[in-house]
Amino acid sequence: xxxxxxxxxxxxxxxxxxxxxxxxRVLAEASNDAGVxxxxxxxxxxxxxxxxxxxxxxxxxxxxxxxVGSRQGWRxxxxxxxxxxxxxxxxxxxRLEAGIGPGWIVPGxxxxxxxxxLDVMRGEEVQLAGANVADGxxxxxxTHSKWVRMSAGAACSVRTVMTGELFALLTRHxxxxxxxxxxxxxxxxxxxxxxxxxxxxxxxASLFSVRTEGLFQRIAPSSLSDYLSGLLIGAEVAAMTGxxxxxxxxxxxxxxxxxxxxxxxxxxxxxxxxxxxxxxxSLGLLRIARLILEKEPA
Amino acid sequence: xxxxxxxxxxxxxxxxxxxxxxxxRVLAEASNDAGVxxxxxxxxxxxxxxxxxxxxxxxxxxxxxxxVGSRQGWRxxxxxxxxxxxxxxxxxxxRLEAGIGPGWIVPGxxxxxxxxxLDVMRGEEVQLAGANVADGxxxxxxTHSKWVRMSAGAACSVRTVMTGELFALLTRHxxxxxxxxxxxxxxxxxxxxxxxxxxxxxxxASLFSVRTEGLFQRIAPSSLSDYLSGLLIGAEVAAMTGxxxxxxxxxxxxxxxxxxxxxxxxxxxxxxxxxxxxxxxSLGLLRIARLILEKEPA
Lengths: 298, 298
Description:
The structure is a homodimer.
Chain A: E1 5-10, E2 15-20, E3 26-32, H1 44-52, E4 62-65, E5 79-81, E6 84-85, H2 86-91, E7 94-97, E8 102-105, E9 108-112, E10 118-121, H3 124-131, E11 136-140, E12 145-151, E13 154-161, H4 163-173, H5 187-199, H6 209-215, H7 224-241, E14 248-251, H8 254-266, E15 273-275, H9 277-295
Parallel strand pairs in A: 1-4, 4-8, 5-9, 11-14, 14-15
Antiparallel strand pairs in A: 1-2, 2-3, 6-13, 7-8, 9-10, 11-12, 12-13
């Protein structure tokens, strides 16, 4: 296999890799669950070799993004302060010997907002490079959703919203989960939650209604998690879009993307652009690697 | 002992009781951890007798409030719709034979707000009767804080805010708890959280800062829980007081009361009135019982 570049997305719980040819076409893909949290210090090169060693001739450049660059990862790469261009990510990439070839770890991003709130991302900056939005808002939803304002090709602000983690905590560990039953995928319950949060985004004061709607049998047990999801996503959209009903680019697929698209539209925003997360990851790694290799051929 | 009335606050995890004389003075107090969640169906009379049987001559009236009136309790008492007067609680009390004398269970309250959100309380209505606020806002903080608007002696609206439960979930089960260390009682970290939430009450978009403030060592590990507490209490106060900077009556004691008092003052409200929870419970039971016994002597 004539691999020109290996791209690696190495997160907390998963390891995924792509082999690219000289034209940037994907020659092969591979993944396993050897996420950073499962790899002991000193074992990263071996784990990488086991997955993609056969793609490299020993000189193939390797670009790595994600938690692999955290303190718990292979080597700690810095957080670049915002505003940051794609080219800054390439310039500040951390050089390392990756065992199967020369490697670079993509740095994270950090932003301090005008309200003093400090935020960071690590891993999503690769998808951001892949989404390739010059001006506008990019949403990377998930356990910790990231909202990024792009201006003239630079990431100008980052805000993390813990919607996915709050949903998991509240369904698994709180009183709200007690009345829930599995099964439902109820768009009406979701919409009711979204609309209530758009009207009144203070979730502290609305979450308890998940219990009362169940207690008084106004929402079926199997639909209560959809209602909670609507409350949380609606509050996120309300907090992050304000009155600006601009078009948002969502980096996600499936149900996650469609729920956010639905909530954005109910908030009055135009239908968002959707970029699949895998595509954004592989394309982002490719773009950053090309900028690195232009200056510093492997 | 010449007991004229026995008052019982029977919650999910605790059972507390007071013996009153004919003038409403407390003759004795007793409590144990035989909360409703620990008592099997059919065993309530026995558990009550074990704690306070010796206070009764077999005809002493017994007034009971709290989760003892829930579906999982001794007998299910209804929820009275708002607006509800103290006298409505007495009128709708559920008569039962309490084994050691004639008993009444105080009903709960339910309110549907103009935004369609339904809310309930059970147990706090007794403390509300004890706090005896004719007009204004009463706050009963805790795992599930209750905010009640009183008008002409009637509870006109109830809103539950899950601040205490969110704090417990986030410190015990979320990523935010990982960087926390025990020990601190840091008023500056608390105030910073309060002020940030008062400026921007969408906690979805600020909670992640607990992690970043720790990660970048701007707040010490032992102070991170104070910062989180400030964010949550600040958001609660912002959502529930709006621009109306009226005086609030807080039913609580100690650190809980002082944290809410501090947050209310930072929001521009006058120093709240503080009513200790135990005092509100015993006085509330006494007041409701007197109204019942006026009409229907035991």
